Amino acid sequence: MGEGIKNASAAAARAGEKVREIGGTLGRSISRFTYKGAYMVSYGVVYATVFVASAVPRQNPLVEGLMDGGRAAIDALNEAKQLPSTAS
Predict the structure, then answer these.
(1) How many CA atoms, within 13 angstroms, populate the side-chain half-sphere of residue 76?
(2) How confident is the model over 5-39, as pLDDT tens digits?
């Protein structure tokens, strides 16, 4: 009976190692998929934006409005970063 308990314990230990190994592999796969997906989306958005922006003449109200809005968003973000956190 003691031999059976030892074998069962060894089998359980091997099974636990396999689960950890599979979990690590799965985690890396999910991480890699997430990174590549985010990279592709951001590349596509930035590339398309730059392509369209290069086709529009710079001296027009649309471009000036986009530039002013972008600057205002950056200023608001920088201001928000400087505010002390009120959430506790």
Answers:
(1) 6
(2) 677 677 777 777 777 777 677 778 888 999 999 99
